[in-house]
Amino acid sequence: MRITCVIGTLGGGGAERVMTYLCGGLAARGHEVTLLTLDDSVPDFYSVPDGVRRVNISLPTFKKAGFWGGIPRLWKLTRAVRATRPEVVVSFMTVSVLAACWLLRIPYIYADHLDVRHLAYSLKWKILRNFLLGKAFRVTVLSERDRKFIALYHPRWKPAVIYNPALPPQKNFEPRPDFLQEGKKYVLAVGRLAKQKGFDRLLEAWRRICEDFPDWRLCIIGAGPEEAELKGLADTLDVQYCVQFVAPVKNLDAVYRHVDLYAMSSRAEGFPMVLLEAMSFGLPVVSFNCTGPDVIVRDGVDGFLVKQNYTDRLAAKMAELMKDEALRRQFGEKAREITKRFSLHKYLDAYETLCKEAVK
Fold first, then answer.
1. Measured distance CA(324)–CA(301) in Å, rounded
2. Where are the transmembrane segments (predicted)?
3. For the chain, does the N or the C end have fewer beta carbons within 10 angstroms?
4. Rounded distance, CA 153 to CA 353, Å?
5. Are residues 120 and 241 in the same domain?
6. pLDDT digits (tens, 9 = 90+) for 318-346
7. pLDDT grade, residue 246 (50/70/90)?
């Protein structure tokens, strides 16, 4: 099959990483895969897999283009899609390309990697989005909750659940990153420094326990609009001496190998890749209970799930694991099972089947 996969950019992010897995996996199975990205001003964070053709065009967002600017934008996008000669298009969180597919009468599959219940759109955008997703062959989501929500409120979208894959770690020696101090143990959190990720709540939880664990540090890796605010909060809470803020790193594998516990404080999630990756490296987890972690983490087996907004309980569960190395090891061994529970093979099978059905 000729399959065109579309995403805004290959900048850092979970959906972008999964897109590279999908393109590379389908190409390895003998399909002719084109990866189309829509903003050439953003540098790639991930490499394009072998055997995948890359097309990168420059399109202003609909918001920047305005209504009248949206018409030439759609024309350019339609030409770009047609030039890839697809039999089917798979779009990750890029609704605008669906209009081009609809005009070209190309079947398309739309993948939403966010918690659909927490998305906000203008009325005009909602109308357009509802129309285009109603014409999709399938709309794939990352949780059964989202599937039920869509089936109830948007049955024309024809939702299907496809979980993100967890890949086994490469068996490479990874030296300890310079920012991880020798002799210290680490709680790791990774993500965009934005309200959704809840790092303000993680810092508040850390304040409650850090004095009891002088040999532990909290390492937060990411960048985003709340960076200055979060660093200021760490100062206000007087935890700046045991909290490290680190810019995004390409080789997270080296980090996972040298930390001891993963914490997730998100207010909402899709199906977080960083959580899957951390568990594949044998890291036990403490997470607020939201969509994504509620399926990934088996409470009391490979981590702890905590009721949303109960930062005192988040702190208590982190402390429980921080003081018990045997429990961390036990949870960590179970966490490695994530690569079987959500294998890349199952993921590729699911998308390959949908693509085949779409072109029939």
1. 15
2. 88-110
3. C
4. 26
5. no
6. 999 999 999 999 999 999 999 999 999 99
7. very high
